[in-house]
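Supplementary Methods, section 5.1.

A reviewer requested that the exact input to the structure prediction be made available. We therefore reproduce it here, unchanged from the version used in the analyses.
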Amino acid sequence: MSLVIVENPSEQLLTDEVIHEADQRVLPCLQARNATWQYSLLAVDRQRMICTFKAPDAESVRDSYRKAGFPSRTIWSGELIKLADQTQPNTMMRYVIEGTYPRLSETDWDEISQKMQRYCAEHEIEWLQSYISRDRTKVIYELIASDISSIQKAPHKLGIACDRIWSAEVLKP
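The structure derived from this sequence is encoded token-by-token as follows.
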């Protein structure tokens, strides 16, 4: 099984009702293709959501979204890089940094990881995990911090790619 990431930007607010309706349409299609929803990160402003799935491949998830009437989603296979134990509940806010890179080599990723770990330690940020695309051009960082300001400074200080930074709540099955 592959880890598949679905990026769900939205022009309308992702209200509980909108999310529930979407779930009712897409989850049966996913289930028919042996894909399992792991969890989602919903932007606090409800304009964006990232969903993670275990699936045979990205095309199975892409086909499920098309059949459910959601064809224009960015869907990619990736690798989970888990950094922190998430068994303890954390009351601080979760933040997401999304970045698009030229293809990262192992050395490039190792350098970014080392810089990010040092920065997080210095600024009391917990780097939970990241998702890196199979083609190594997209990275999603999941972080916990007491406020967004130290998160917003990280890309510039570290010289890492940043398409957007947002506050998130976790949705689980």
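The radius of gyration is 16 Å. These observations are discussed further in the main text.
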